[in-house]
Amino acid sequence: MAIKAVFFDVGGTLIRPYPSVEEVFVSVARDMGYDVSLEEAFMRGHIMDEYYEEQYAHDPRLWCTRDSVYKLYITMFRLLAEELNIPKPHDELVVRVHGMFDDNRHWKLFDDVIDCLDSLKLAGYKLGVISNWSDDLAVLLGYMGIREYFDDVVSSAEVDCQKPDPRIFRLAAKRMGVTPQECVHIGDLTEADGASFNVGFHPIFFDRKNSIEYCPFDKVSSLIDAVDVCRSIK
């Protein structure tokens, strides 16, 4: 069946923190008078990733409300503050760090995003987003200058379910007016984004660093390559 719609994940696929989370954290901490080493922050930053992975594995509603997303990030930043031996209390610091990302100032498009979206639009595909994100995702995409490319934006907090729950993929296809078999989903997490396969989507695993040797789906290291894969699917 011919592909009619192409959906994207957002974080790690279309956009990234800029500067990095560690750099923003250190900048805010220094502004508040703390003597913090950026090198040490990079060395200790894995504590945030580990906490996130643990929470995501055990909480199927982690991304389903604005409040739960907020608590997730606040806890991650608090853990980093503790790892860096910043004196307590950390409340003001972590809230200020969160605010830097919450107001959209510290996100950046990957360099190949616009060319990819332009090419897919020109080829006649409907474009959409399926992302584990808070309910202000469409606002962020507008700030980044790409909201106009998308026929629909589905965030987990808006629809009360998160990837890899099959309901979010079925809902996105229904809202787009296509069948799951007519959809591609491009994302950088094999479990969360690859789950689209279970409802009939054609997943494309986006591995920008080319760090995964085996993947059961089509794999690309640039979004431009993903355009070619979409065109090849019959």
Topology:
Blueprint: E1 5-8, E2 15-17, H1 21-31, H2 38-44, H3 46-58, H4 66-83, H5 91-102, E3 107-109, H6 113-122, E4 126-131, H7 137-143, E5 152-155, H8 156-159, H9 166-176, E6 183-187, H10 190-194, E7 202-206, E8 218-220, H11 223-232
Parallel strand pairs: 1-4, 1-6, 4-5, 6-7, 7-8
Antiparallel strand pairs: 2-3
Helix pairs in contact: 1-5, 3-4, 4-5, 6-11
Q: What can you tell me about this protein's structure?
A:
Helix 1 packs across helix 5. The strands form two sheets. Strands 5-4-1-6-7-8 form a six-stranded parallel sheet, with helices on both faces. The protein has a two-stranded antiparallel sheet with strand order 2-3. The chain folds into two domains: 5-15 and 107-232, 3-Layer(aba) Sandwich (Rossmann fold), CATH 3.40.50; 19-102. Helix 7 links the parallel strand 4 (126-131) and strand 5 (152-155). It is 46% helix and 14% strand. It is of the alpha/beta class and 234 residues long.
Fraction of helical residues: 40-55%
- Shape, principal axes of CA atoms: elongated
Per CATH, the superfamily of the largest domain is: HAD superfamily/HAD-like
- Radius of gyration (Å): 18 Å
* Biggest sheet layout: 6 strands, parallel
Which terms would index this structure?
234 residues; alpha/beta; Rossmann fold; six-stranded parallel sheet; two-stranded antiparallel ribbon; 8 strands; 46% helix; 14% strand; elongated
